[in-house]
Amino acid sequence: MLLTLRESSGGPWDNIPIEMFIYGAGGAYSWGTLCGALNTSMAIMCLASEKHAEIGNDLIGWYTEFPFPSDKMDAYSHFPKQHQTISKSPLCHVSVSTWANAADSIQRINEKAKKDRCAKVTGDTAARAAELLNQALGGKVVPLYKVPEEFNHCMQCHQGEKSTLDNQQGKMNCNLCHDVADDHPAKTQ
Questions:
Q1: Cα 95 versus chain centre, distance
Q2: Would 36 disulfide with which of 24, 61, 140, 183, CB 3.0-4.6 Å?
Q3: What is the pLDDT of residues 69-78, one digit of tens each?
Q4: Nearest-5° angle of CA 91, CA 86, CA 99?
């Protein structure tokens, strides 16, 4: 996105060193945190639009539900037609591990196929970010992401000042990492 903005608009975009985003690879120096494609896209959104929170939230929600990688980047890739998975998470380690473990033959993380997959994820994410950014700049922001019912009911008790417990922060699918105890109110109702 930054290179496209440099080519199309120049000005202040010419002064942002692309090297400042290198840390995002592997979810920040291979820690598996926020996907670097999301991280970089949202940094650009913050600089380009006052609506960055709305479109950034929508981008993350889209990422958690999109079947990656699409075939849109296959013409530029070494491994076309890779299998697709939906991560249900914006975290690099969940996205990559879900993909690696879903393959017909399990993919190894440190092989070229995974790097190709992540390059495609970056392309898909940058394309969606550009769409959202163009909508925002055109004054047509239409947020599409809503927390799925699969875990929305969790938020009612655990998230927010007015919730019963107010002991959780985030919008991710809690069921990916947390088991719900048999005596949990959500299971006993």
A1: 9
A2: 24
A3: 999 999 999 9
A4: 75
| Mean pLDDT, rounded, of the chain | 91
Span 55-99, pLDDT tens digits: 999 999 999 999 999 999 999 999 999 999 999 999 999 999 999
The SS3 call for residue 56 is helix
Measure CA of the first residue to CA of the last residue in the chain; give whole Å.
Answer: 48
CB 33 within 8 Å of CB 27 = yes
Whether the Cβ atoms of residue 91 and residue 33 lie closer than 8 Å to each other = yes
Cα 113 to its chain centre, rounded Å, is: 20
3-state percent helix, strand, coil for the chain, nearest multiple of 5: 55, 0, 45
**pTM (two decimals):** 0.90
In the predicted structure, residue 104 carries a pLDDT above the cut 70 = no
Q: Where are the alpha helices (DSSP H) in the chain?
A: 2-8, 36-48, 52-65, 92-102, 112-137, 149-158, 185-188
Around Cβ 1, how many Cβ atoms within 10 Å?
A: 18
